[in-house]
Amino acid sequence: MPRYAAVDCGTNSIRLLISEVLPDGKIRDVTRLMEIIRLGEGVDATGRISDAAIARARAALSNFVEQMRFENVTAVRMVATSASRDAENRQEFFDMTAELLGQIQPGAMAEVIFGAEEAQLSFRGAVGDLSPDKGPFCVIDLGGGSTEFIVGDHTGDIHGAYSARMGCVRLTERFLPTDPATPDELAAARDYVSAQLADVAKTVPLQDARTFVGCAGTFTTLSALAQGLEKYDPDAIHGSIVRFGALRVLLDHLVKQPAASRALNPVIHPGRADVIGGGAVAVHGIMDLIGDATDTNSFVISEKDILDGIIAGIVDAAQ
């Protein structure tokens, strides 16, 4: 059975999905891995990816390539977003990925994707396990440097999409330097989020959506916290429903905690503990945005996202 790999490298983390195509045509996960590499550390201020960040990315991607070789992966696609789009020395990063990924598939390297394609891939992955009659859907992919909003039908027909320049790392580095953040810092971060979301409201038909789907690390971690899980459990998180009222209480608690206290919780990855406060500010604003446009009061949380969309695309191309 053929096995394929997808890699997504964002501002905060790099992630791997290896899947295989079963004889009946269904796609089965073989392994999912994630490492916090903080590729975007300092990029917002300096315009460059630091040498240390590139070294962290190389080490993580080398591990992923070893895993691909062990699982006999025959094709791979890697996408890179936000930090690698913005950095002036991005070619150094892309050359490194070509060196490593070429061991799996000659000519493979990270590629920057934009706009429509990123929306299509993220949306396809996030709604794949949801019932079509729950649509139209609004998928919200909250990353380290940006947050994507995509409204569409289960068929993949996209009604509107927008990428807002706000994410857990960007907000933390720009507005929340104190640990824990001061009231003035939180107010400045919330004002920035509100300005970004005003553009979302003008661009994306949120009022068309019946179901709002939150994906990526901030949302999945918040679901684990809201459920009171003792360890991070993807099966319990995927498809879970998190209601806005309970989430607001949780977010207010999170932003008041120092990073060291957050890191003690077993469902919060140590590399996410210092930036999830920025994610909390973003989610708070997103709930206000949704409340203004609709009568929705909950998120459906998806463990699936752009990685699953990439795999589906590889499978389509191979058929």
Automatic annotation (TrEMBL):
It holds the Pfam family Ppx-GppA. GO terms for molecular function: pyrophosphatase activity. Residues 24-290 form the Ppx/GppA phosphatase N-terminal domain. It comes from the Bacteria. SUPFAM superfamilies: Actin-like ATPase domain. This is Ppx/GppA family phosphatase.
